[in-house]
Amino acid sequence: MDVLVTGAHGTVGTAITDHLSDDDRYEFTLLDVEAGDGPGESVVADVRDYDAIRPHFEGQDAVIHLAIVPGTGGLDDRSLGWSEPLADNLEALHNVTEAAVDAGLDSIVFASSNHAVGMVEARNAPGIYFDDEPYAGHDEPHRPDSQYGLTKTYGEDLGRLAAESHGIRFYALRIGAVRDPEYDHPYGDAERGVDRGDWERGSDAYEEQVARMKGHWQSRRDLAHMVDCCLRDDSVEWGHFYGLSANDGRWLDDLEHARETIGYEPQDSGDEWDAPPE
């Protein structure tokens, strides 16, 4: 299977290629705004430029759309105003979706985000991190918590339109927290804060970050496995799935749905960790 990956050299893109590049079923083309290392052909193009990206869709079976234009507001930005980065990201979503349909690809895998329903967390934090009961299931409606989250809900709806109108399969992954290899564990955000000098290890702020990640983490290999499940699936017309490892404390809960629908079987769990790696 020939697979185009946009934004291929970022945290999520490298998680996919780190774990799937040795799989003989896949040939990856890595598209990004700058050249980078990685398995497969690397091409430079900007997803805001339809004419620049369109040729790279030829001969592909699927696209994994990860690229996002920086500047779409912070995750705590509740502003309702229009902005150039917001417009750029919506244009990029249209460009990738149109190119995939026009080139006759079989499927789109879209890096959506937990922030598509992020108001669930925003309205219930920090108690949500310490509660073992899920707050939102698979059928939770869109509840974006920021302009960033809004772009993800828009991307999900655009993908559904493409699927139902043009017959391309569409998978939205509402990714929780995938991190670079150094911080790929449920203590990752807390330890990164220590490294930046934001707080001390064992402080209340540190422990809150640990509690959040123990419910919200998706390991790099579990993320790659979820993508693999989507690429191999031929039954879904369109759908969304929470990108989480098998964490008991998760507040977004559709693992059974993902298991039954695309065969997702996460190998990792935040509950297996009681300290950061030495």
Describe the structure.
The model has no long low-confidence stretch (mean pLDDT 94). It is globular, with a radius of gyration of 18 Å. Strands 3-2-1-4-5-7-8 form a seven-stranded parallel β-sheet, sandwiched between helices. It is α/β, with parallel strands linked by helices. The chain has one domain (2-184, 217-272): NAD(P)-binding Rossmann-like Domain (Rossmann fold, 3-Layer(aba) Sandwich). The protein contains nine helices and nine strands. Strand 1 (2-6), helix 1 and strand 2 (27-32) form a beta-alpha-beta unit.
Question: N-to-C terminal Cα separation, in Å?
Answer: 39 Å
Domain unit count: 1
CATH superfamily heading: NAD(P)-binding Rossmann-like Domain
Total strands: the figure is 9
Query: Strand sequence of the main sheet, in spatial order?
Result: 3-2-1-4-5-7-8
What's the CATH first level? Alpha Beta
Mean pLDDT figure: 94
The CATH topology assignment is Rossmann fold
- CATH architecture name: 3-Layer(aba) Sandwich
Q: Given the helix and strand composition, which structural class is it? A: alpha/beta
| Poorly predicted runs of 5 or more residues | none
The residue fraction in helices comes out at 25-40%
Strand content: 15-25%
Question: What's the main sheet like?
Answer: 7 strands, parallel
**Rg, nearest Å:** 18 Å
Number of helices: 9
**H and E order:** EHEEHEHEHEHEHHHEEH
Morphology:
globular
